[in-house]
Design brief:
With LigD forms a non-homologous end joining (NHEJ) DNA repair enzyme, which repairs dsDNA breaks with reduced fidelity. Binds linear dsDNA with 5'- and 3'- overhangs but not closed circular dsDNA nor ssDNA. Recruits and stimulates the ligase activity of LigD. There is one protein chain. This protein has a 7-stranded mixed beta barrel. The chain has a two-stranded antiparallel sheet with strand order 3-4. With 294 residues, the protein is α+β, with helices and mostly antiparallel strands. It has helices at residues 79-85, 123-136, 176-180, 190-202, 215-229, 247-264, 273-283, and strands at 7-13, 16-24, 65-70, 73-77, 92-100, 109-117, 138-146, 149-158, 161-167.
């Protein structure tokens, strides 16, 4: 069964208009979700807004947005005023420009979505846009209103479809100068740099997302399963602190370990598909309610 589209609209390139549908590409809905309970009764608890001064509950219809202008002073914004500030949407990805695919710094990436034709009549126009971008090795910068906000979206060919990534605005991305302001200038050379290069060369690989396990999620699943089965929970022993060594000596040891690992790599059996399925089945033992993606 095809997933439900999050948004439907149009992709416009010049005079070529193609109806498209937007689908969530990354979701947290499969993560284990917990409810908050009253320890004494076992009943679920619910959140409630209360007046900070009186302590009395405030019903939804009495809640309004407020912008603090000074300590304790707010400008009140009514719901219809906030709604009127939302840009009007024509449901169209308006292409501003085509740019090289790697022209946008990753720090501007927000959330990815899949773009596909919204109906069979759009397949030809969609394929034309996709293959034209692929041949020229470019991405499209588009602007539209998504989920009540105007967003910039980077659209790129992806397999037989397109992927659109919402972008952070410039004011949302903090300057790296603030994070790196205390870093001294250092010149690394000689044996130290050679050892670092050697370690990198021996650990070269390729990105395979299926090879990465969410160990925290797996540990939660095992914990839930153990509680359901009434097994004793054994706290994990804290990891012993590593000894502080000289940087050059640490590099030499790492280079030696990397060399040994590369020699043994061919003798290490790969995890079979059956083993992965067994692990997944074990993880599924502690079934809990899932939270729907918002």
């Amino acid at each position: 069964m095809a997933p439900r589209a999050n948004w439907k609209g149009f992709l416009k390139v010049g005079e070529v208009v193609c109806p498209v549908a937007l689908y969530t590409a990354a979701s947290t809905s499969d993560r284990i979700a917990f409810h908050t309970l009253n320890r004494k009764t076992g009943n679920r608890v619910r959140r409630q807004y209360v007046d900070a001064e009186t302590g009395r509950p405030v019903e939804r219809e009495d809640q309004v947005k407020g912008y603090e202008t000074s300590a304790g002073e707010h400008v009140v914004l009514e719901p219809d005023e906030v709604a009127a500030a939302v840009p009007e949407s024509d449901k169209t990805f308006e292409i501003d420009a085509f740019i090289p695919c790697d022209d946008v710094d990753d720090v501007y990436f927000d959330k990815p979505y899949y773009l596909a034709p919204a109906d069979p009549t759009a397949h030809e126009a969609f394929a034309l846009i996709r293959e034209g971008m692929r041949k020229k090795k470019v991405a499209a910068l588009a602007r539209t209103v998504l989920f009540r906000r105007e967003r910039m979206v980077l659209i790129r060919p992806h397999d037989v479809g397109l992927v659109g990534t919402t972008l952070n605005f410039d004011y949302e991305v903090r300057s790296s100068a603030d994070a790196f302001s205390d870093l001294p200038k250092a010149k690394i050379q000689g044996e130290m740099l050679d050892l670092a290069r050697h370690i990198i060369d021996t650990k070269r690989g390729a990105f395979d997302p299926s090879a990465f396990d969410d160990r925290y999620e797996a540990a939660l699943a095992e914990l839930v399963k153990a509680k359901i089965e009434g097994r004793k929970i054994t706290p994990r022993k804290p990891k012993a602190p590593e000894k502080v060594t000289d940087l050059m000596e640490a590099l030499r040891q790492s280079a030696g370990a990397s060399g040994d690992a590369s020699k043994k790599a061919s003798s290490v059996p790969k995890r079979s598909g059956k083993a992965k399925k067994t692990a997944a089945a074990s993880r599924g033992g502690g079934d809990t309610e899932r939270r729907k993606a918002s």
